Amino acid sequence: MKLRWIVAWVPLAVGCSDPAGDDSIFTSGADAGLTSTGEGPGGTRGPTAGGGTEGNDGTAAGTATAGETTSPGTGSPPIFDVGTMPDGGGNGCAQVACGESEWSYIWIANSTESTLSKIDTRTLVEEGRYYTRPDHSGNPSRTSVSIDGRAVAVANRMGGVTKIYALPEDCTDANGNGIIDTSAGGAGSMVPFAEEECIAWHTAFPMATTQRPVAWTSGVYNPVTCEYDEQTVWSAAAFGTGGTWPCDGADGIHVYRLDGETGSVLEDVHMPDVTCGSTLGPYGGAVDFNNDLWMYIWSAGTIVHVEFETLNYETLPGGSYGITVDTSGRVWVDSGSRYDPMTGMWANEIGNLPGSGGAGIAQDQLGRMWTATQGGVGWIDMETMVVGDIVPLPEGGLYRGIGVDFDGYIWAVMLGGTTAHKIDPVTYAVDTFVGLNSPYTYSDMAGGQLTSVTCNPPAG
Fold first, then answer.
1. β-strands 345-348, 361-363: how paired?
2. Continuous segment of H or E residues that includes residue 105
3. How far apart are CA 247 and CA 437, in angstroms?
4. Which of 19, 155, 217, 251 is 20 to 30 A from residue 262's alpha carbon, by CA?
5. What is the β-pairing status of strands 151-156 and 161-165?
6. 209, β-bridge pairs
7. Which pTM does this prediction carry?
8. What letters, b where the CB count within 10 A reaches 16 and e where it falls short, cover 26-45?
């Protein structure tokens, strides 16, 4: 289905959110479904609450299916603070730097379909599906949501970064017909790339043989305009000699910073001295509260840190499949290990969190790090490193994508399947979206990581 929007936009509040506690019953569209297990808030606002191999790397077959609508149940999760960043409310701003978000989407790459699904995290309805390259190819994977939730950037593993707007009000009537021509559903609703008016820009990297990391920087909140200025996007690519996404060329790795408004390359940091590891190369990336980039180099077993201000970079040994940065500036990988830049030391989990063969990792709003386990997800206390609970999920397979949305819910995306699960971090109730097509995705796909480090920087 192709949607035509005629709208007027009024700025809304975005950022770190607290819950409204609305236990609504949601209706799914024809291309998306919602099922519910256990008791929990479902689509409500709140709670606030190693290693491995790449495997099929997005090539597993899958078909989109539609689910049924059910009641999400009940629940009254606690309210958490919304950070220490100042807001813009004093000047009458509706959109504040760190306040309640009126919209919240998770963006999941349907890798072999070369599309990106936009799913409302509160209603579990897919509101759009988009091609990620002009040739309707590209094999997208990592996604990153901007601090205001108004856009996503997606990296194509075959090269190229694309920005897509979340809100039709931000889209451009490029053909001048007085309406916004855009997708409004799931499978089969895609608008051709050249006609999709919610695609803001695409920056091609035609010589790249592998391009995976992507991460927004926060930008600077402007209390006069009530918007974030100077937002940029980190990405990294490598250049090889042939084969399947090799990183074995003499040119080595390049880290790019793109203009968030135009997609133009602002910075190109060449790293010929950084060992690529012969396969896949730059793998995952995340930013800290300084907007520095931290990325893992596949098969080299190293992490690269690039400073935002100086563009100086360093390489340190260690790392694993998924990577994130917590609110204290410490780097986490999915094997349950934590690197502290202040001490230069690694720490490991205390207990047994059974590994999953490679997955994402994400910090929730309760001071815990979540990653995939065998057949589900589990968490580690961020300070003590003690392993907590394990939450089994329906399919019992590998949940490669792990993320946290603006409201603090945990998301787990089934590798190569059709489902994404939304987990209440307090009650462990699970709601399920059905309708994806062979996703291979993990990263800050719902915006929780960037929001967390921006709105809750360490004291001092």
1. unpaired
2. strand 105-110
3. 28
4. 251
5. antiparallel
6. none
7. 0.82
8. bebbebbbbbbeeebbbbbb
